[in-house]
Amino acid sequence: RGVRVRRARAHDGHAHPASPHDTRTPRLPPRAFGVGMAGVSHAMSPASVFASTARRSARLFTAAAHLAHRPPAGAACASRAAGIHPPVCRARAFAHPGSHASARGLHVSRVRAVADPAVPEPSEAETRAEADEDETRRAGVVHSVEGSLAILEGIGGDIKPGTLLAIGDAGATGVLLSHREPKSFALLYVGGDGATPGAPRLASDESITKPGDAVVVRRSARFHMPPESDVVNRRIGPLGEPLDGGSVPGEADGKFRDAASATGSGSELFREPPSVEDRKPITTPLVTGVKPIDILTPVGRGQCMLLTGEVGTNLSELGLNAVVAQAKVLGQEGKQSGKNASVRCVYGAVGAAAFDSGANAFAQLKEQGAVDFTVVSCAPDASLAERYAATCAAFAVAEGARGEGKDVLLVLDDFTGLVGFSRDMARLSPQLEMAEDDSEDAPSAEQMVEYEGMIINALLAERRRFLGMTLQRVARLNDKLGGGSLTLLGVMYHEAGAYRGKRASEKNSGTVGEAADDDGDATVVVPALPAGFDDMPEATRKKIEAVIEERKRLAEAAKASRAEKDAALSAAPENDFTQPRPLVEEFMSITDGQVFVESFSRDKGWGVSVKDSVSRVGSPGAAGPLTSLNVLQLRLDVMQADDMSVFGGDGAEKDGMRSRSSAIRGFLRQAPGSAAKLSQQTVGLYALQRTKEMSNVNAEEAAAFVAAAVAKAEKEIPEVMRDIDAHPSKKLSAEAQEKLAGLF
Fold first, then answer.
1. Contact 612, 596 (CB under 8 A)
2. Separation of alpha carbons 707 and 683, rounded Å
3. Nearest-CA neighbor of 184 among 41, 391, 377, 48?
4. pTM more than 0.70
5. Sign of the CA dihedral running 290, 296, 300, 303
6. Separation between Cα atoms, residue 521 and residue 222, nearest integer Å
C-alpha cells in the first residue's frame, strides 16, 4: 500500500512501481467487472455477476488485511495486486504470493515494490508517451450494425459513455452510448472532425461500417455539443447539426466544428450526474404559468417532474405552454432583475413531436413569443438509439447553459428513447453467462438484490440505474459551480384505461376541473318513466315523454361525439409512444413528483387529479406570495369536499364544501396558450382565501370574479404586481397584503 505504480515498457506487460516513499494513490490498469451503464464505470450487473463479485471481494479484503500486518522482507518484497474492481466499493486489494488469496487461484497482476529511493521519476516525455499509448491501447471490433447503431465487442466497461471511437477505414466515428456486457453500443457519424466543413451527421450506410471492422478507442476525446451561444433560438439534431436551415453551430472565423474539442464547444453529450457536494437545496420556485401546476404541485428550480395522462390530454402542449410562459410570467422587470429571474428553455421533441423533426413545435414557440429557447429533435423515423441520443443532447444543451450559471427549463415530450434503448440493449446483448457454481452461496435464478434501500430483481436494478443516471443530471448546482439549475418537465403518456378503475365516477376522481368530458358536455342521463305514468293526465304524460325524447336525442349526440373523438384519438401519433402502468409508476418513484392530468378542454384547460399529483419538494419549491396565503390548504379542501360528496350526508356542511370545491375549480380554470403570471395567481388566491365574495359561488361565477379582481389590481396597484413577478421567492409584506385587501 502507498506505492505509486506506473506501467513500464517490459515485455511481460506487468506494472513496475517507482519509489515507495511516494504516497500518492496507486494507479493500476483497471479491469471492469460487471456492466458499465451510461455515465457509470461500474453499474449494476446481472444476478450471477453480483453474487460472484461479492464472494471474490470478500476473499480479496481478507487477503489485504492479512498483508497489512506482515512486515516487509528486507529492502524489497513481492506482492500481487488483484485486478478486480467491485462495482460498489471500487477498492484495490493487495495479496502476498503465499497468501490465502493467491492460493485460491485468483487472477492477479504481479507488482514489484522496490524500496529504493534512487529510482527516478518518469520524465515528461515518458508520461506523454504513456498517455499516447493509453490513447490507442484499447481496441475492439464491430460485431454488427443496425442502421446508425454499431454493436461492439472488446470495449472495456471502464470506457465512459461519450468517448469517441475510430471505426473502420472509411472515416466513420462512433460516440459510445453505453455498455451491457459483453457488448458495447456506439452511434455512428461522419464529419465534425474540424478538418471538413459541415456538421457531424449520422452514418447509416452499410458501406461505411461493417461487421469485423476494427475499433480504436480515443480515450481522451469526448463528444461535445456546439457552444451555448450558437444554439439559442435554433432547432438542432442529436449531434448538434442544424435542422432549421441555418448556419452550422460551432463554425466561426473560418474554423470548422470539431466535436472532439472542448475549446469553443458546449457541454459534453454525456456527463455524470452532479454529486451531493455539487448540489444545492431547492428553494427557488419556477413559475410555469399553468395555474393547476403552480398552485397544486409547485415546481422548484432544479426539480424533476413527470407529466402523465392518457392520449388526448395534450401533455406536449402543456410543456410548450410552460416554455412560452417563461417570456411572460416574469414581466419586463423580472427579466432585468438578474439571472435568478430569467429562465433559459430547451424543448426536446423526441417523441410524437418529432413527426416533422420538431418544426411544428419550433414554429409554435416562435409564434407565441418564446425567447431564449432551443428545440432538439430527431428524425421522424429515428431509431431508439437515435432518440436516446437526442434525449441526451437536450440534456447536454441544458447543462451547457446551467454551467454558465443560468436557470434552465428542459421539457421532454417523451421518454421512449430512454426506455426503449434500455430494452434494445437487453435484446442485442443477452445476459452474461457465468460458469456453473455449485457452492452453498450460489445465486438463484431470480436473484434479488438490495438497491437504494429496496430488495428488487437484479435486472430491474440494472434498468433503474440506467434510467436514474440520466434523470439525476437534473439538479441545482452550488455557488462554487455557478449556482445554475436544470429543471425537467418530462411527458409520459400511459395506456388508455390504465387508471380508469381509480376514477370509478366523477365524484371520487379528485380532479380539479369540470365534471364533464373533454368538450365540457356532462354525461347525459336518460330517465325512465315514473311510477304511475299511465294514471297521469294526458298533458303531463306528453311533457314527460317530450323530456325523455329530448334526453335520448342528446344522449345519441353525445355518444356520436365520443365515438368521433375516440376515432381521432386512435389515430393520434401519441399512441405510438404510450407506456404501461408499471413503467409509469417506476418513473414516478424516480422523479421528484408527478402531475396527473385526467382531462383536457380547449375552453377550460387541463383537469389535474389532486389525489394522484404530488410534488415531493413541497413548500420549498412553492412561490413565496402563494405560501403567504396558505396555498397548501387548497389540496386538502378539494379532497375533503370530494370525500364529503361521496360519504357525507346532506346538509349545510356538505353544500359549503361543494361550493368551496367549485370556487377552486373556477379559480384554476385557464385556457391553453395563455400564461398566468405569479401576480395574477396571487390576486386570485387572495380572493379565494381572504374574501367572502368567493363563498357560495359556482365555477363560472368564481372565474369571472377572479378575472375582474386581476384587471382591477393591474390598474390600481401595478407596483405591487410588478414586485411580485420580479421576486417569486419573496413572501408578501404586510403593506402588499394591505393593498391587496383594498381591492375588495
1. yes
2. 9
3. 41
4. yes
5. negative
6. 56
Nearest CA to 222 among 253, 256, 266, 168?
Answer: 266
CA 565 to CA 567: how far, in whole Å? 5
How sure is the predictor about 554, in pLDDT bands with cuts at 50, 70 and 90?
A: confident
Rg (CA), the chain: 31
Highest mean pLDDT among 28-42, 335-349, 404-418: 404-418
Query: 182: cis peptide before it, omega within 30°?
Result: yes
Residue 544, C-beta contacts closer than 8 angstroms, at least 6 positions apart = 529, 530, 533, 536
Distance CA 498, CA 173 (A): 43
Whether 279 has a pLDDT exceeding 90, the answer reads: yes
Proportion of the chain in helix, strand, coil states, percent, rounded to 5: 35, 20, 45
Residues forming a β-bridge with 449: 456
Query: Would you state the cell numbers that stand for residue 626, as one nine-digit string?
Result: 402563494
Taking residue 261's Cβ as centre, other Cβ atoms within 10 Å add up to 15
Output the nine-digit C-alpha cell for 669.
380554470
CA dist 682 and 690 (Å) reads 12
Q: Which of 592, 578, 651 is nearest to 620 (CA)?
A: 592
Are 410 and 489 in contact, with CB atoms under 8 Å apart?
yes
**Biggest alpha carbon–alpha carbon distance for the chain:** 121
User: 343 in helix, strand or coil?
Assistant: strand
Would you state the cell numbers that stand for residue 564, as one nine-digit string? 368521433
- CA–CA gap between residue 727 and residue 341 (Å, rounded): 7
Instruction: Judge contact between 489 and 348, C-beta under 8 A.
Output: no
Of 325, 319, 321, residue with least CA distance to 351? 319
pLDDT bin (cut points 50, 70, 90) of residue 3 is very low
pLDDT digits (tens, 9 = 90+) for 644-668: 877 766 778 888 888 888 899 899 9
> Which one-letter amino acid corresponds to residue 276?
V
Q: What residues does 457 pair with on adjacent strands?
A: 448
Which of 38, 43, 28 lies closest to 84, judged by CA?
Answer: 28
Sign of the alpha-carbon dihedral angle for 449, 450, 455, 457: negative
Task: For residue 104, count other CB atoms closer than 10 A to its CB.
Answer: 13
User: What does 48-106 look like in DSSP terms, one character per residue?
Assistant: HHHHHHHHHHHHHHHHHHHHHTSPP-TTEEEEEEE----TTT----EE-TTSHHHHTT-
Pairwise CA distance, residues 741 & 744, whole Å: 6
Cell of 337: 432583475
How many other C-beta atoms lie within 10 A of the C-beta of residue 348? Answer: 35
Q: How many CB atoms lie within 10 A of CB 532?
A: 7
pLDDT at 415 over 70: yes
Cα–Cα distance for residue pair 610/509, rounded to 1 Å:
8
Grid cell locating 296: 397544486
Phi, psi dihedrals of residue 17, rounded to the nearest 5°: -85, 165
Nearest-10 crossing angle of helices 416-428, 384-403: 130
Grid-cell match 471505426, residue found: 167
Q: In Å, what is the CA distance from 147 to each residue of 62, 155, 223, 358, 382? A: 49, 20, 20, 22, 10
Q: What is the pLDDT of residues 705-743, one digit of tens each?
A: 999 999 999 999 999 999 999 999 999 999 999 999 999
Residues 705, 707, 711, 717, CA torsion sign: positive
φ, ψ dihedrals at 303, nearest 5°: -100, 150
Instruction: Give residue 514's region: left, alpha or beta (phi > 0; psi -120 to 50).
Output: beta
Q: Each residue of 200-232: pLDDT tens digit?
A: 999 887 778 999 999 999 988 999 999 998 999
Q: Which of 420, 418, 397, 392 is nearest to 408 (CA)?
A: 397
Task: Provide the 8-state DSSP code for 355.
Answer: G
Q: Residue 432 is placed in which grid cell? A: 452474461
